[in-house]
């Protein structure tokens, strides 16, 4: 997380310095308006609160409440990086990198079973819930006005999950890790409020109950919802700032044919709901 934080800081400082350099008339920092394509770089930084989070590994595993028993009753760093390519004001390609790595510590108030591993009551624990993801989206904007947007499209997301339960003395540990693709429907809108401010909304969502969608060839029920509302200000011709409120959550329940090791029966039941508040910038 420290590396992500430093990266965002370096990008923000570099953008501020470069924005002060002279440019050709009518051009922004990154773009020439005469080109048929426009590039936009975005970043957000803020905090993430976990509203609810439960997980179970193994048919005989313990349903575990991270918020109540796992130390997730706190605020955590939230960061997000995006790169957008707009072609002829109608076609939009967006790449997103979303780190999500929540690490907490707490003693177990009850016995915890993860697959075949039993963690006794009172064990001081290290918990890691890592669920970084990468998302590539294509959208078509149905509005010709460059200051307005109503875009609809599809996204392909790659999850990079690492979830660990470890006793602090190193005696007990269990790890679950996987990489997999997820298809998503994407909708985004933007409406100017006046000459210097705007209101935006964005929704990425998916729900399915089939082994055909998750790339792991097992029956499951899964969902993703990444929905945000933002208020933005046009700081100059090259830079917008915005305040963003976001719900980020999802669920997965099913029986996989793949096994992490001995004692792993492939069963997972995971449900996560978070709320984030962040400050963001678009560099154009």
Short descriptors:
single chain; 284 residues; mainly beta; Lipocalin; ten-stranded antiparallel barrel; two-stranded antiparallel sheet
Task: Describe the model.
By secondary structure, the chain is mainly beta. The protein is elongated. 8% of the residues lie in helices and 62% in strands. The strands form 2 sheets. Strands 1-3-4-8-9-10-11-12-13-14 form a 10-stranded antiparallel beta barrel. The mean pLDDT is 89. It has one domain (2-283): Lipocalin (Beta Barrel). The chain has helices at 2-19, 66-69; strands at 37-57, 64-65, 75-87, 91-98, 101-107, 112-114, 117-119, 124-141, 149-167, 173-192, 197-208, 220-234, 239-255, 267-283. The chain is built from 2 helices and 14 strands; from the N terminus they run H-E-E-H-E-E-E-E-E-E-E-E-E-E-E-E.
Query: What order do the SSEs take from the amino end to the carboxyl end, as H and E?
Result: HEEHEEEEEEEEEEEE
Mean pLDDT: 89
Q: Name the CATH architecture.
A: Beta Barrel
Structural class from helices and strands?
Answer: mainly beta
